[in-house]
């Protein structure tokens, strides 16, 4: 049986890898929809092979009663990826990642209506702090209103955050479906949804892929999606949800660091303050009440 320490290591590897995906996407010379299709298809095949080599049968009986929600979730995932990958092309990886991490805020705002959860004063204060942080992430206090391209990237990343929040909300109703089967179906549906979308919106015959782009695309599909998703969801079986939430913040920290180091995309004082407000408020919002009280 996997130990807790091994599960933590797997989780760290997965969330660290998630923080690097923006760097890879930047250098793949294909439309975002095609990258999303390959990511879903390769990831689904990888998980299917993983089940096969582990001699674990696919439990269709646990999937069938929830296939409508799984299909909806998979479709949302595909457009979540498209909007995020497009955001990387218009704004910095750091800014897009920080906008994307507004997803917990959107889930918090929707929870009283969807899950009848009480919006406590602490959570409401965290939401307001995160929204204030987004103003700083946009760069308005430092440089004024963003240019059209930058504004487009921010809006696309925020749309991606809304889609991700929607997917998280749907998955709250799918906790009876085993993690591997759930993820496999969602990735397969995401790939299938992209096929007609690509045929209707892209000139497939005119697409070209450089050798570097092909290697990076394969890495995004096999490593970032297939292997890291299996590590991520596998670790959730052995770790408390709170640990998973806390370790997930490695993702944006890595993305911000690599954005500055490799792409020379510094945040500036406005972005740094915004990052502290967005990530800090969402982290505090997820902490148990007792833990939050102990930090005062």
Automatic annotation (TrEMBL):
<feature type="transmembrane region" description="Helical">
    <location>
        <begin position="90"/>
        <end position="115"/>
    </location>
</feature>
<feature type="transmembrane region" description="Helical">
    <location>
        <begin position="34"/>
        <end position="53"/>
    </location>
</feature>
<keyword id="KW-0812">Transmembrane</keyword>
<dbReference type="InterPro" id="IPR037185">
    <property type="entry name" value="EmrE-like"/>
</dbReference>
<protein>
    <submittedName>
        <fullName>DMT family transporter</fullName>
    </submittedName>
</protein>
<keyword id="KW-0472">Membrane</keyword>
<feature type="transmembrane region" description="Helical">
    <location>
        <begin position="124"/>
        <end position="145"/>
    </location>
</feature>
<feature type="transmembrane region" description="Helical">
    <location>
        <begin position="183"/>
        <end position="200"/>
    </location>
</feature>
<feature type="transmembrane region" description="Helical">
    <location>
        <begin position="269"/>
        <end position="289"/>
    </location>
</feature>
<feature type="transmembrane region" description="Helical">
    <location>
        <begin position="9"/>
        <end position="28"/>
    </location>
</feature>
<feature type="domain" description="EamA">
    <location>
        <begin position="11"/>
        <end position="138"/>
    </location>
</feature>
<dbReference type="GO" id="GO:0016020">
    <property type="term" value="C:membrane"/>
</dbReference>
<feature type="transmembrane region" description="Helical">
    <location>
        <begin position="212"/>
        <end position="232"/>
    </location>
</feature>
<keyword id="KW-1133">Transmembrane helix</keyword>
<dbReference type="Pfam" id="PF00892">
    <property type="entry name" value="EamA"/>
</dbReference>
<comment type="similarity">
    <text>Belongs to the EamA transporter family.</text>
</comment>
<feature type="domain" description="EamA">
    <location>
        <begin position="152"/>
        <end position="284"/>
    </location>
</feature>
<feature type="transmembrane region" description="Helical">
    <location>
        <begin position="65"/>
        <end position="84"/>
    </location>
</feature>
<feature type="transmembrane region" description="Helical">
    <location>
        <begin position="151"/>
        <end position="171"/>
    </location>
</feature>
<feature type="transmembrane region" description="Helical">
    <location>
        <begin position="244"/>
        <end position="263"/>
    </location>
</feature>
<dbReference type="InterPro" id="IPR000620">
    <property type="entry name" value="EamA_dom"/>
</dbReference>
